[in-house]
Design goal:
The structure is a single chain. By secondary structure, this protein is of the alpha/beta class. It has 2 domains: 162 residues, 3-Layer(aba) Sandwich (D-Maltodextrin-Binding Protein, domain 2); 116 residues, Periplasmic binding protein-like II (D-Maltodextrin-Binding Protein, domain 2), CATH 3.40.190. Helix 2 links the parallel strand 1 and strand 2. The longest helix is centred in the N-terminal third of the chain and has 25 residues. It starts with a helix and ends in a 5-residue tail after the last helix. The model has no long low-confidence stretch (mean pLDDT 93).
Amino acid sequence: MKLPRRQFLHLAAGAAVLPAVSRIARAQAYPTRPVRLVVAFAPGGAADIVARLMGQWLSERLGQPFIVENRPGATGNVGTEAVARAAPDGHTLLTCVAPNAINAALFDNLKFNFIRDLAPVASLYSAPLVMAVNPAVPAKTVPEFIAYAKANPRKISFASSGVGSPLHVAGELFKMMAGVDMVHVPYRGSAPALTDLLGGQVQVMFDLIVSSIEPIRSGKLRALALTSATRSNLLPDVPTVGDYVPGFEATGWAGIVAPANTPADVINRLNKEINAGLADPRIKARLAELGATSSAGQPSDFGRFIVDETEKWGRVVRFAGIKPE
């Protein structure tokens, strides 16, 4: 039977609308059960704290519990792989962090691809490190430190929280870009590293602001620069490394990703609600206490950032010849 042209166009238009209606209905129905928000590290870190804040926010906004699940192991790879292999329906998410981008180059035998197997949902925050020295180091500025390091090759030790950690690769990036040769001393965590920096057993450390700010304020450490592109309200008088080493930037960060092939409408709804949470004064205030600033944006923005970070730290890992312990 041949349909009249007007009736055919009407039916065709209706058929075209159906997928869009279906997507909208699916997004409105999501989530249909509790959501697991995996943190691939032990409780207590900044990413864990912010994940719990955001989980509570999303629970209230979307009507289902967002349950934070800590799955530490293998420098974050255990929890990350679990999410990469989960059903792509938006009910299993990962709070990804800077080590995920570093691990992509650090480990040769990962059973997942950080960029290919996980879909960006939303960025949460970024947090600078602070380049701090023991007061026995004569340098009071980054240029003075570079000159001192070049005059004393391999006589300066820099501490980190472990091989391949953000604190480690920040120091290696500085070595690479400033053209200095320092000895890396890894510790099992940032606390013992900071203790030895205070005691003078090591000379410099690229540390989290929240860990070093009190020793800096009391004069037990000297802050030379921040590793972010801009200054921090916590240390407003401290310049950035990039002021003296153009292009240098190394920050801690966190965001939310989902298994690849998670429906775009589900990702977009999550993104919208997460961005709303990042604009909430209570969450912004808590981020500030952690030395972090919110970094709201679209999934595509976060996706480009992940690719850039993975490529950058891959170059550093190869340049420094870093191997996992």
